[in-house]
Amino acid sequence: MTAPILRFHDGTLVLENWDRESNPPYFHWDPRSRTWRALAFIYADVLKTFRKKKIHLQDTAQAFNRLDLRMKLSYTLFPHQKEALKSWLKSDCRGTVVLPTGSGKSLVALYAMASLKISTLLVSPTLDLMNQWYARMGDAFGVEIGILGGGYHEIRPLTVTTYDSAYRHMDRYGDRFGFLIFDEIHHLPAPAYSQIPELSLAPYRLGLTATYRRSDAQHLKLTHLVGPVVFEKKIKDLAGEHLSDYEIHRIRIPLTLREKKNYDSFHESYNRYVHEKGIKFYGKKWEDFIKECSYMPDARKALLARKGLRQILFNAEKKIEVLESLLKLHCRDRVIIFTEDNALVYTISRRYLIPALTHQTNTVERKAVLDRFRCGEYRFLVTSKVLNEGVDIPEANVAVILGGSASPTEHLQRLGRILRKKSGKKAILYEIISSGTQETNISYRRRGSDAYR
Q: Would you say 251 and 290 are in contact if contact means Cβ atoms under 8 Å apart?
């Protein structure tokens, strides 16, 4: 009897020479190619089940290699990092480690790579993060690191990429890596990105994040795709010893009479339509509302009213006055100012001659600004969302939030920007909100994290 042959094809497993009467476990008949086929991500389960059933299998699917991988730099792991690595190894090298920003998730990943010694693909959400991992892995192991993304297409046993590039190419390279690492894994449940782990046969998988849970509950997919949460510590657990001590101050400001009048008008117009139609801020009804705005005058009027009231909230005159006072108070600190939109970023940048970072800032300028902030040439930065994640600036010790979403994830990311440990450092976060408006509710909702209790 000829042994069945297992091979990889375009992100799937194909089983050939199956001559038994029963269907092979995990596989489905593909009438187009007249073969038994399954998604690549069940590769480890297929091998385990066939061994258990004592079915000899000729495995030609995997193309990843064992590596002579040794750490070139000596790192000392903190107890929480050792415990995280140990928990992941005990969970068959599958699962997610949840640790606050600045607490050393990257070291856990490097030691996981050193433990497995196998071809590894590290997936990150941005080019900046990809470049950071490229340098970090090269320094740690002293080997050439491959890059897939940002104009590069170099596949090596250790390779870094972005979620976008991995999504485009995983069907080609899903057999080349035995270990997948997903940095900021809360991005993975997106419909397109979730195909990345499905098209890979990597038996070993590690997720890293500070903000695992998503408001849409899509994080529940991750147990199936990568494995369960194997270790978790919160900001409160590590503050003081492994993260900077921190304070959070909430500053309420009143709207001016003119702002209050315009806000009430916009709010009434928007609320009337929303309540009549039963619109929620998520799901199908919200999607239908956005579509209706393109052809229904009343819907468009309500959307414009919403935009108007949000502009008043996030650009309130008193907020700028408070900001000016805080900049004077913290003139010797490193301060990051967060806004909800780019218009206010540029207004603040021009008024106070503060460097601005937005999605429009090119790579060279962005690096120059961050380098000057780190060395102290610049003491203040103003941004909207581009610094929410993926930036290592331990020198920052003050954050001022002028506007943002109701997402606890976004709020934790912004707090994380100032929590990296540094000798003698105490972090302070100021949240400035317009009292007597819906921003009070937005603030309450985004503070739904242990870090704010």
A: no
Q: Mean pLDDT across the stretch 268-275?
A: 86
Q: Up-side HSE of residue 160: CA atoms within 13 Å toward CB? A: 23
Cβ distance 328 to 400 under 8 Å? no
261: Cβ–Cβ under 8 A, 6 or more apart, which residues? none
Q: Where are the alpha helices (DSSP H) in 93-216?
A: 105-116, 127-141, 163-173, 195-198
Q: Considering only CA atoms, give the Rg of the chain.
A: 25
Average pLDDT over residues 94-107: 91
Consecutive H or E run containing 246: strand 245-253
- Model pLDDT for residues 321-377, shown as the tens digit of each residue: 999 999 999 999 999 999 988 899 999 999 999 999 988 888 778 888 988 999 999
Instruction: Name the residue among 218, 222, 198 with its Cα closest to residue 208.
Output: 222
| Contacts of 19-22 spanning 24+ positions with Cβ under 8 A | none
Q: Give me the amino acid identity at 50.
A: F
> How far apart (Å, rounded) are the C-alpha atoms in residues 188 and 123?
10
φ, ψ for residue 291 (rounded to 5)? Answer: -65, -40
Please name each of the domains of the chain with its CATH number.
5-59 (3.40.1170.30), 79-233 (3.40.50.300), 245-254+316-452 (3.40.50.300), 257-314 (no CATH)
The conformation of residue 178, written as its DSSP 8-state character, comes to S
> Torsion-angle region of residue 26: left (phi > 0), alpha (psi -120 to 50) or beta?
left
Highest mean pLDDT among 77-86, 296-305, 401-410: 77-86
Tell me which residue of 350, 337, 386, 347 sits closest to 365, measured CA to CA: 386
Stated as kind and residue range, the H or E segment containing 98 is strand 94-98
Q: Which of 408, 435, 11, 13 is nearest to 211 (CA)?
A: 408
Q: What is the pLDDT of residue 257?
A: 92
Residue 451: its pLDDT value, please?
A: 54
Taking CA atoms, 229 is separated from 75, 233, 258, in Å, by 25, 11, 50
Return the structure tokens found at 240: 């003081």
Cβ neighbors of 307 (< 8 A, separation 6 or more) are: none
The Cα angle at residue 55 between residues 49 and 56, in degrees rounded to 5: 115
- Give the pLDDT band (50/70/90) at residue 131: confident
Instruction: Name the phi and psi angles at 39, rounded to 5.
Output: -65, 145
Q: How many residues does the chain have?
A: 453
Tokens of residue 269, six digits? 């117009």
Rounded-to-integer distance, Cα 187 and Cα 133, Å = 17
Other Cβ atoms less than 10 A from the Cβ of 142: the count is 12
Q: Where are the beta strands (DSSP E) in 387-440?
A: 398-401, 426-434
